[in-house]
Amino acid sequence: MFQEKASGAKVRRPELSKLLEHIREGDTVGVWKLDRLGRSLDHLVDLVTTLERRSVGLISLNDTIDTTTVQGRFIFRIFAILA
Questions:
Q1: Distance CA 68, CA 56 (A)
Q2: Tens of pLDDT along 30-55?
Q3: Fold of 25-82
Q4: Residue 39 and residue 82: Cα distance in Å, rounded?
Q5: Where are the beta strands (DSSP E) in 17-70?
């Protein structure tokens, strides 16, 4: 479990960096809310793209997003487009 104590708006996020170093193909990252993960929509989309390239899923408990499914990836992309 990785828990960032600093604001998501901060550029330096050591726990997020550790998470990205630690994850492996087939893992799934769980977050409480998407806005806790990314500093901005662009940053969030970049992070999700990085996870997808590494074959890592993302589940957001509060936003009901699960990128391990086709529908979840579709919903995430729709939200990103609308935002």
A1: 8
A2: 999 888 888 788 888 889 999 999 99
A3: Rossmann fold (3.40.50)
A4: 17
A5: 28-31, 57-60, 65-66
In whole angstroms, what is the distance from residue 67 CA to residue 29 CA?
Answer: 10
Cβ burial of 4 (10 Å; 0-12, 13-18, 19+) is middle
Assigned token pair, 72: 């979840």
In this prediction the pTM is 0.82
SS3 80: helix
- Tokens at 75, concatenated: 């919903």
Question: 10 to each of 1, 13, 49, 63, how far by Cα in Å?
Answer: 20, 7, 20, 22
